[in-house]
Amino acid sequence: MSVPENLLYTKEHEWLRVEGDIGVVGITHFAQEQLGDVVFVELPEVNSKLTQGGSFGVVESVKTVSDLYSPVNGSVAEVNAGLDAAPEQVNTDPYGEGWIVKIKIDDPDALKELLSPEQYNELLKEE
Amino acid sequence: MPQDSSLKHTPLYSVHVELGAKIVPFAGWNMPIQYAGLMQEHLAVRKSCGIFDVSHMGEVEITGKDAESFLQNLIPNDVTKLKDESVLYSPMCYENGGVVDDLLVYRMAQDRYMLCINASNTDKDFQWIVENSKAFDVDVANISDRTAQLAIQGPNAEALIQKLTDVSLKDIEYYHFKIGKVDQVECIISRTGYTGEDGFELYFDTEKAEAMFRKVMEVGKEFDIEPIGLGARDTLRLEVAYPLYGNELSAESNPLEAGLGWTIKLDKDNFVGKEPLAASKEKGLEKKLVGIKLLERGVPRSHYSVTKDGKKIGEVTSGTFSPTLGLGIALALVDKEYSKVGESLNVEIRKQSVPAEVVKLPFVPRSVKK
């Protein structure tokens, strides 16, 4: 599966889509494939502060658990409450219905530190 | 994905890759951890059937006139209770009572047995068995490399395998076997497994593994067969509370505390590890392996602490999200006073103390042929 061109990425396999001053965040197709069947996502509180590279939640799959790392500094604007009832959306539609949080971005300059689709593709080749 | 070339491959490695399996290193082997997805595979075994490549497992042949007395001394369970074509589960212990491995004993004849042992322990076990055989007139042979093993498990397993053999499968009882042809290949056809479902484990010549696997898959179509990876193998065994070496059992564990009391025959004349085990039983066991069910959302994992009123009283040995029950379950070794069914405990999951309860084992009823 190809890496979507309109997103930015972290080395920990989160993606971020910029929508004005909001960043929509989820985990990549590769990440969900590595985790296997997701059984729940531990979401942060709305308005909580996130720091770039800091852990803000957890994805539990049947066989393993993985931290979620914030791609940017900001505060949580919205969480995907639909994941409570349907956590498998992280597997079936990681870039769509399986989004995890929307973050109000404090510092748009820091987006430069994220990986471009090309760079993320390179990273995947090494995995 | 780069592969570590020091890892061994079962004869079915290329078939797994062809089937789109995700391959991971396990016990020195490159093994399929999942194909279509753990949850789907797990439920297929519970509802229809699945095929597992377990050729990484070790097999050791014990032959000679002292074979029975040798094994009777080597392991705590009672080998003299075995008849030809029957199977016995037992741990194998060190002198101090710790566990070398857990294994199956197949009796072909009074002077001929086969042991099935864990992949991760094959070399260590073989060495241990040879060392302990010096005083006995037996030959010990590691036949792991020439032995393939496939497990076909689930409610449809018998009907499927029956299509490939003239051996009357309904006449093979649980923990019994017959030697006969499956798809023209001589096999040990054993009514055993590690899933809690009815099913068979087939042992046969490695050279025939690929043809056999493909044949079972082909004939299995009408029985809704799916290939099953090690991920679902683990969740299946955990739901029915079968122990796993490295988790519930280890060189440090006391098999009496780990729930294997039923296999430790302290009334036997002697066996390796008898004295310390008898002494620990006499003294009273300090811990007990229990089943724990989470009362709130969460997935317990091995080594998570189990607490009571904030005090650590044990540790999770194996934990998972149960695909059948849809909640977090765990086996945990806890202080005996907190081991009663219904006891309220907590499992420490990251920074949260998640309420849990001791429940009766197994978590999911076993459907093996009795």
Which characteristics define this entry?
heterodimer; A: 127 residues; alpha+beta; six-stranded antiparallel beta sheet; three-stranded antiparallel beta sheet; 4 helices; 20% helix; 35% strand; B: 370 residues; Gyrase A, domain 2; Elongation Factor Tu (Ef-tu), domain 3; six-stranded mixed beta sheet; six-stranded antiparallel beta barrel
How is the CATH topology of the domain at 8-56 and 146-239 in chain B named? Gyrase A, domain 2
| Regions with little confidence, pLDDT below 50 for 5+ residues of chain B | none
In N-to-C order, the SSE pattern of chain B is EHEEHEEHEEEHEEHEEEHEHHEEEEEE
In terms of quaternary structure, the protein is: heterodimer
Total number of β-strand segments of chain B?
Answer: 20
Class from helix and strand fractions of chain B: alpha+beta
Describe the largest sheet of chain B: 6 strands, mixed
Topology of chain A as a string of helices (H) and strands (E): EEEHEEEEEHHEH
- Residue stretches of chain A low in confidence (pLDDT < 50, at least 5 long) are none
Largest interface, with counts of residues having CB < 8 Å to the other chain, equals:
A-B, 13 and 18 residues
Alpha carbon gap, first and last residue of chain A: 15 Å
CATH topology of chain A: OB fold (Dihydrolipoamide Acetyltransferase, E2P)
